[in-house]
Write a structure and sequence with these properties.
Strand content: 25-35%
Oligomer: single chain
Number of helices: 5
Structural class: alpha+beta
C-alpha cells in the first residue's frame, strides 16, 4: 500500500513538470497582473502623485500639425534657415544657434510638457531622453518637478483666479480644478523668449495652455494639452501622451545641455541640431 501511494505521488509530480515544460515551450508564460484601479486622495479625487515617464515624447510637427500665422511662419522660417524657408521642417536644418535653450534660457512650459520636447543630449557619449515628471498632490496646490531643465511648477487648486496685471514668467501662472475625475489646468502669462519646441516654432506672450490629466489606472496617466496663441498659431493644436509610473530617481543626476560650452564654441551659421550632437545618420 505504501509503495503504491509513493508511485501515485511521483506520477503527479512528473505530470505537473511535463505540463509546465510544455506550456513554457509553447510560449504560455504567466502574464503580469493587470493594473489596479486609480488610487484616490482622502477627498475622493484621483491621486495623480508619482514619478511618470512618457511613452509619447515631443510635439514633432511630423506628428502634430502646427498651423502658423504669417507672424509665426516668418519666425519659423528664420529659425530653420534660408535653405528650407518654405514652412516645412526638414528634420535636421534647425539653426540651433538661435535656440534659446542653447543660450541658457529656461525651456519654458511649452517645452517642459508633458509631453516634454524630448531634446536628445549627450552624456558621456550616450544619447539620453529627458522626459520624467514628479507630481506631488497636496490640498490647495499641485507641485510638478521636471527632469528636463530641473524645473519646478506650482499649480494652485484653492479656487483662486489668475491675478490681474499678471507679469509674464517662464512657466506662467497655472490654476487647476477638477471636472469629475479629470484635473484641468489653465496656464497664461508665459514669457515669449522661449520656443514651443526644439524645431523652431515660436510663440507670443498670448500663449494659452490647457491641460487635462486623467489617471486611467494604478500605473497609467493620460495628459492632453491644447495650445492656443492668436499671434503665432493660425489654429490651436493638441498633443496627447501617456505616462507610466516608474521608480523615483534623483533628478539632479539627469544630464543637462551644456549651453555655456556651446556658446563658447561659437557655432557656425546654419549649424543643425544633429551636427551639434554628433548625430549625422539622417538621410
Amino acid at each position: 500500500m505504501k509503495g503504491r501511494l509513493i508511485g501515485v505521488i511521483l506520477m503527479i509530480i512528473v505530470l505537473g513538470f511535463s505540463t509546465t515544460t510544455f506550456a513554457q515551450r509553447n510560449g504560455q508564460q504567466k502574464e503580469a497582473p493587470a493594473p489596479g484601479p486609480a488610487p484616490r486622495m482622502a477627498d475622493g479625487k484621483p491621486d495623480l502623485s508619482g514619478t511618470w515617464r512618457w511613452e509619447a515624447i515631443g510635439s514633432d510637427p511630423a506628428v502634430v500639425p502646427i498651423e502658423l500665422t504669417l507672424w509665426g511662419l516668418d519666425k519659423f522660417n528664420w529659425n530653420i534657415g534660408p535653405e528650407t524657408a518654405n514652412g516645412v521642417y526638414a528634420g535636421r536644418l534647425t539653426r540651433v544657434e538661435l535656440d534659446p535653450v542653447m543660450h541658457c534660457y529656461p525651456p519654458g512650459l511649452a517645452r517642459l510638457g508633458p509631453p516634454p520636447d524630448g531634446q536628445r543630449i549627450l552624456s558621456q557619449g550616450t544619447i539620453v531622453e529627458t522626459g520624467q515628471l514628479d507630481i506631488i498632490q497636496t490640498p490647495g496646490k499641485m507641485i510638478q518637478l521636471y527632469s528636463y531643465g530641473h524645473e519646478a511648477r506650482y499649480i494652485y487648486t484653492d479656487g483662486r483666479d489668475h491675478p490681474k496685471n499678471l507679469q509674464p514668467s517662464w512657466n506662467g501662472d497655472s490654476i487647476g480644478k477638477w471636472e469629475g475625475d479629470t484635473f484641468v489646468v489653465d496656464t497664461i502669462g508665459l514669457r515669449d523668449e522661449t520656443w514651443l519646441d526644439g524645431v523652431g516654432h515660436e510663440h507670443s506672450d498670448k500663449l494659452h495652455i490647457v491641460e487635462r490629466y486623467n489617471r486611467l489606472d494604478s500605473e497609467t496617466l493620460e495628459v492632453e494639452r491644447t495650445l492656443t496663441d492668436p499671434i503665432a498659431l493660425a489654429k490651436s493644436f493638441t498633443t496627447r501622451t501617456v505616462g507610466k509610473l516608474t521608480p523615483e530617481t534623483d533628478f539632479h543626476k539627469a544630464p543637462m545641455v551644456d549651453c555655456k560650452a556651446y556658446m563658447a564654441r561659437k557655432p557656425a551659421f546654419g549649424e543643425g541640431i544633429n551636427g551639434l550632437l554628433g548625430i549625422n545618420d539622417h538621410p
